[in-house]
UniProtKB/TrEMBL annotation:
<dbReference type="InterPro" id="IPR044494">
    <property type="entry name" value="AKR3C2/3"/>
</dbReference>
<feature type="domain" description="NADP-dependent oxidoreductase">
    <location>
        <begin position="30"/>
        <end position="217"/>
    </location>
</feature>
<keyword id="KW-0560">Oxidoreductase</keyword>
<dbReference type="InterPro" id="IPR020471">
    <property type="entry name" value="AKR"/>
</dbReference>
<feature type="binding site">
    <location>
        <position position="132"/>
    </location>
    <ligand>
        <name>substrate</name>
    </ligand>
</feature>
<protein>
    <recommendedName>
        <fullName>NADP-dependent oxidoreductase domain-containing protein</fullName>
    </recommendedName>
</protein>
<dbReference type="InterPro" id="IPR023210">
    <property type="entry name" value="NADP_OxRdtase_dom"/>
</dbReference>
<dbReference type="InterPro" id="IPR036812">
    <property type="entry name" value="NAD(P)_OxRdtase_dom_sf"/>
</dbReference>
<dbReference type="InterPro" id="IPR018170">
    <property type="entry name" value="Aldo/ket_reductase_CS"/>
</dbReference>
<dbReference type="Pfam" id="PF00248">
    <property type="entry name" value="Aldo_ket_red"/>
</dbReference>
<feature type="site" description="Lowers pKa of active site Tyr">
    <location>
        <position position="103"/>
    </location>
</feature>
<dbReference type="GO" id="GO:0016652">
    <property type="term" value="F:oxidoreductase activity, acting on NAD(P)H as acceptor"/>
</dbReference>
<feature type="active site" description="Proton donor">
    <location>
        <position position="78"/>
    </location>
</feature>
Length: 311
């Protein structure tokens, strides 16, 4: 079982393999508690997952003419905080053993939104609170800066141990860094061989902001066939693991926290067991990266990024 962690500025250790409670587990009614979602999260907890990533909600994002993508990769609403909180409570695992992330639905009143989230989550604090995306600001630097001041208040009041952002590009980060008393601890971004975010990741590294990657399996779930398929297949045979494990290792072995999900117990257990058995060499990481650059593909927030969707 993989136990790799990274250190946040506050001293907390972040498990590098994260169970995401969005995308797979969506529901149509906000007030309903979906038992299947609760049970799925409890199963992940039972297998050993302790870094659980959630969100208040994602608003629908329509396809953009600037980006090449599949028509089924459009955002949908999800509201799974009540299920996440109930699953943790029913698991009987102490709250202190978990690293819980949630995200603000918009940059407006992030403190009030977190208070509401904590009630749904049945807890007094989250380990990491993120601004979900910068696009709701309408490009306003002032709105983003005020949102970050609100995030800092959440940290000061103990509602969130660490604060960060998600889906931010360099200009968005520069806007809040101008006024930040506390830098974002994390920028959670879509990242995989077909969307490597090299310039952004280098900027984050220089600013000592941790990168977290979501949608890491996109090359085999939404963008296949593609140029990395044969390479990943060969490596899967070499290490006697799945191609999913190869893609997750491509992320983790670059020092990036990875978020994935599945509704299948077998698949979740496979991730834990297989990732503990091998690491990719620097040459293998490089080869996958080189092949990945032959294709550009973004699966999420396409309309929000517009012409910048591959940055």
């Amino acid at each position: 079982m993989t136990t790799q962690t990274l250190d946040l500025p506050c001293g907390d250790k972040v498990p590098m393999l994260t169970y995401g409670t969005g995308t797979v587990w969506m529901k149509s009614a906000e007030d309903d508690v979906d038992r299947a979602t609760v049970d799925a999260i409890k199963e992940a907890i039972d297998l050993g997952y302790r870094h659980l990533d959630g969100a208040q909600c994602i608003t629908p994002i329509s396809p953009s003419p600037h980006c090449r993508k599949s028509t089924n990769a459009v955002e949908q609403d999800y509201e799974t905080e009540p299920e996440l909180g109930l699953a943790i409570e029913e698991s009987k695992v102490p709250r202190a053993e978990f690293f819980i992330t949630t995200k603000a639905v918009s940059p407006i009143d992030v403190e009030g939104a977190l208070v509401t989230s904590l009630k749904k989550l049945r807890m007094e604090y989250v380990d990491l609170y993120l601004i979900h995306e910068p696009f709701s600001s309408g490009g306003s630097e002032e709105i983003l800066q005020e949102a970050w001041r609100g995030m800092e208040r959440c940290r000061e009041k103990g509602l969130a141990r660490s604060i960060g952002v998600s889906n931010f590009l360099i200009p968005h980060l520069e806007s809040i860094l101008k006024i930040a008393n506390v830098k974002p601890a994390v920028n959670q971004i879509e990242c995989h061989p077909y969307l490597q975010r090299t310039e952004l990741r280098e900027f984050l590294k220089k600013q000592c902001i941790m990168t977290e990657a979501f949608a890491p399996l996109t090359p085999i779930t939404k963008a296949s066939p593609g140029p990395i398929d044969a390479m990943c297949g060969d490596l899967a045979k070499k290490y006697s693991v799945s191609t999913s494990a190869i893609l997750l290792r491509w992320i983790i072995d670059q020092g990036i926290v990875v978020i994935t999900t599945s509704g299948q117990r077998k698949r979740l257990l496979e991730y834990l067991e297989q990732l503990s058995r091998f690491k990719l060499s620097n040459e293998e990481i490089f080869q996958i990266s080189q092949l990945g650059r032959e294709r550009n593909y973004r699966a999420f927030f396409v309309d929000g990024f517009g012409k910048d969707c591959f940055l």
